C-alpha cells in the first residue's frame, strides 16, 4: 500500500479513477484534503496545532460515488475509516445513539486495523507454533503433556514444544504442508463469549455493555472445553492464540489512537436529513437541530472518552454527504456550515457514465458477472452494443422513476442474467452473447411500462 508521503494529488485522483467514474471535482477536493495532511506534518509543531482539516460536504443524488470516494480514499492510505448515517443519531435525551459513539467506533476500527498490521509481522512465527501444538496432540511428549494437550507458551518467543526424533519431524512436515488438514483431532478451546442482554441502558449502551463483558471476562477465569475439529480449523485457532501472545496491546492501542487522531476519516451520510427546516410555517424539528448541535463539538475539536482512552477529534477529517433535494446546506445551523468549508456538487450519471462504469473500473460489473458465471463454465460475451443498450436503459429508468445512480445497473444486470444464472450448470451452449437484442428482449417491455419499472427495476 502506498504511503501518504508518496501520493501527490494527481496520483490520488489517478488511483480513485481506477474504481470511480467521473466526479472529477469531488476527487480533486478529497485529494487536496489528503495532501494537506502530509503538508501539515512537515510544519513546525506550533503551527501544526493551528491548522485544522478542511472538512468536505458532498452534494449529490444517491449512487453517484459519494461513499465510494471516501471509502477508497481511506483504503488508499490505510487510514481509520467509518461510515455512519446521520439519521441514526439523535440529540442527547431523545431515543437514539449518542453522537460520540461515532468516535468510539472509529477508534475500535483503528485498533482492529493496527492489530492486523502488527499481526502480519508474526504470521510465520505463529503458524509454526500452531503446527507444533497440533503435533503435540498427535504425538505428545510426556515431558510436555502431563495434564494438558500441550504446554502453552507465555509469549510468542517461547518454543511451544521441541520436535525431537526424525519421525516426529516427518509428522510435523505433513502437518505444515497441509496434508493432514482434513484429519479430525480433539483440542481444548475457550468458549465463545455471548453478549450480555439488557445491561446498563443509556445512550452509550453498546459501549457500556462491552466494557461490562470485558470486566467479567478478566475477573472470571475462562474454562476450556474439549471439542473435535479438523486440523485446519485447529490451526486457525492456535495461530490466533499465538498471535495474541505476540501483540503488545498497549503498543497497539497507542498506535491506534494516534492513527485515529492524525489520519481518521469519518463519512457522515444522509446529512441533508438533519438539515431540514420547518415546513408550512411550523416550528423546526428540535431533534434534528439537536443532532447538529451535538455533532458540532466533535467536528470543531473535542476530547471523547473511549474504552481505549481519550481521543481528540481536532484533526479528524469529516466528509458529509447528502442529496439536499428538500433542504439546502444553508439550512444547517450556521456554526456547522462553517465547519464544512469545501462544498462539492456531484453530477448525476449520464448514459455515457453508465457505459464506463460497466467496463472501465477495476473489478467492473461486467468483469464481476463474467467471473461468477465462468465458475460454471459459462462465458458471457458482452458486445459493445449490448453494453450501450444496458446503459441507455439504466439512464432512462433513472430519469422516469427514482434516480438511484449506478445502483440501477446492479438491478438490471440481475434481471437480464437471471435465467442464465439459474440454468448455468446445465447449459450445453457455454458461450452466451449479451447483445443489444438480448438486452431489449429482457428489458424492453418492462422499461416501456413505467408503472412496471417502479416495481421491477
TrEMBL record:
Domain AAA+ ATPase: residue ranges: 52-346
One GO biological process term: proteolysis
Keyword Ribosomal protein: no
Domain Clp ATPase C-terminal: start-end pairs: 349-445
SUPFAM superfamilies per UniProt: P-loop containing nucleoside triphosphate hydrolases
UniProt family annotation: Belongs to the ClpX chaperone family. HslU subfamily.
Pfam families per record: AAA, AAA_2
Alphabetized InterPro entries for the sequence: AAA+_ATPase (IPR003593), ATP-dep_Clp_protease_ClpX (IPR050052), ATPase_AAA_core (IPR003959), Clp_ATPase_C (IPR019489), HslU (IPR004491), P-loop_NTPase (IPR027417)
Purpose of the protein: ATPase subunit of a proteasome-like degradation complex; this subunit has chaperone activity. The binding of ATP and its subsequent hydrolysis by HslU are essential for unfolding of protein substrates subsequently hydrolyzed by HslV. HslU recognizes the N-terminal part of its protein substrates and unfolds these before they are guided to HslV for hydrolysis.
Residues reported in the UniProt entry to bind ATP: 21, 63-68, 269, 335, 407
Domain of life: Bacteria
Keywords: ATP-binding, Chaperone, Cytoplasm, Hydrolase, Nucleotide-binding, Protease
Main location, first listed in the record: cytoplasm
Record carries keyword Signal: no
GO molecular function: peptidase activity
Assembly with partners or alone: A double ring-shaped homohexamer of HslV is capped on each side by a ring-shaped HslU homohexamer. The assembly of the HslU/HslV complex is dependent on binding of ATP.
Localization in the cell: Cytoplasm
PANTHER family per UniProt: ATP-DEPENDENT CLP PROTEASE ATP-BINDING SUBUNIT CLPX-LIKE, MITOCHONDRIAL-RELATED, ATP-DEPENDENT PROTEASE ATPASE SUBUNIT HSLU
Protein name listed in UniProt: ATP-dependent protease ATPase subunit HslU
Amino acid at each position: 500500500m502506498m504511503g501518504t508521503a508518496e501520493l501527490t494529488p494527481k496520483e490520488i485522483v489517478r488511483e480513485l479513477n481506477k474504481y470511480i467514474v467521473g466526479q472529477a471535482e469531488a476527487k480533486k477536493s478529497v485529494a487536496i484534503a489528503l495532501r494537506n495532511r502530509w503538508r501539515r506534518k512537515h510544519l513546525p509543531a506550533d503551527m501544526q496545532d493551528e491548522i485544522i482539516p478542511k472538512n468536505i460536504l458532498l452534494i449529490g443524488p444517491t449512487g453517484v460515488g459519494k461513499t465510494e470516494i471516501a471509502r477508497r480514499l481511506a483504503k488508499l492510505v490505510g487510514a481509520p475509516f467509518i461510515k455512519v448515517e446521520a439519521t441514526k443519531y439523535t440529540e442527547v435525551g431523545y431515543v437514539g445513539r449518542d453522537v460520540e459513539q461515532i468516535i468510539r467506533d472509529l477508534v475500535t476500527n483503528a485498533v482492529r486495523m493496527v492489530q492486523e498490521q502488527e499481526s502480519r509481522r508474526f504470521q510465520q512465527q505463529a503458524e509454526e507454533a500452531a503446527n507444533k501444538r497440533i503435533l503435540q496432540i498427535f504425538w505428545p511428549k510426556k515431558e510436555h503433556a502431563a495434564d494438558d494437550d500441550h504446554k502453552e507458551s507465555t509469549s510468542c518467543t517461547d518454543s511451544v514444544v521441541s520436535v525431537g526424533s526424525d519421525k516426529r519431524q516427518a509428522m510435523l512436515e505433513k502437518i505444515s504442508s497441509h496434508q493432514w488438514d482434513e484429519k479430525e483431532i480433539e483440542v481444548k478451546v475457550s468458549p465463545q463469549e455471548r453478549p450480555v442482554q439488557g445491561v446498563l441502558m443509556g445512550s452509550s449502551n453498546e459501549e457500556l455493555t462491552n466494557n461490562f463483558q470485558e470486566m467479567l471476562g478478566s475477573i472470571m477465569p475462562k474454562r476450556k472445553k474439549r471439542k473435535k475439529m479438523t486440523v485446519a480449523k485447529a490451526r486457525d485457532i492456535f495461530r490466533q492464540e499465538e498471535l495474541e501472545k505476540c501483540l503488545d496491546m498497549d503498543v497497539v492501542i497507542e498506535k491506534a489512537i494516534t492513527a485515529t487522531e492524525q489520519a481518521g476519516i469519518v463519512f457522515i451520510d444522509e446529512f441533508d436529513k438533519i438539515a431540514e427546516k420547518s415546513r408550512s410555517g411550523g416550528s423546526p424539528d428540535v431533534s434534528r437541530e439537536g443532532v447538529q448541535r451535538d455533532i458540532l463539538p466533535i467536528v470543531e475539536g473535542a476530547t471523547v472518552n473511549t474504552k481505549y482512552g481519550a481521543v481528540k477529534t481536532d484533526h479528524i477529517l469529516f466528509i458529509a454527504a447528502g442529496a439536499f433535494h428538500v433542504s439546502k446546506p444553508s439550512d444547517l445551523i450556521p456554526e456547522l456550515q462553517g465547519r464544512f468549508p469545501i462544498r462539492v456538487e456531484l453530477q448525476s450519471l449520464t448514459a455515457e457514465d453508465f457505459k464506463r462504469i460497466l467496463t472501465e473500473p477495476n473489478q467492473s460489473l461486467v468483469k464481476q458477472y463474467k467471473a461468477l458465471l465462468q465458475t460454471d463454465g459459462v462465458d458471457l460475451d458482452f458486445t459493445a452494443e449490448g453494453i450501450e443498450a444496458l446503459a441507455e436503459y439504466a439512464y432512462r429508468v433513472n430519469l422516469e422513476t427514482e434516480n438511484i445512480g449506478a445502483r440501477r445497473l446492479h438491478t438490471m444486470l440481475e434481471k437480464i442474467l437471471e435465467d442464465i444464472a439459474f440454468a448455468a450448470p446445465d447449459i450445453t451452449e457455454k458461450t452466451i452473447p449479451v447483445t443489444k437484442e438480448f438486452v431489449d428482449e429482457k428489458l424492453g417491455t418492462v422499461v416501456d411500462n413505467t408503472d412496471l419499472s417502479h416495481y421491477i427495476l
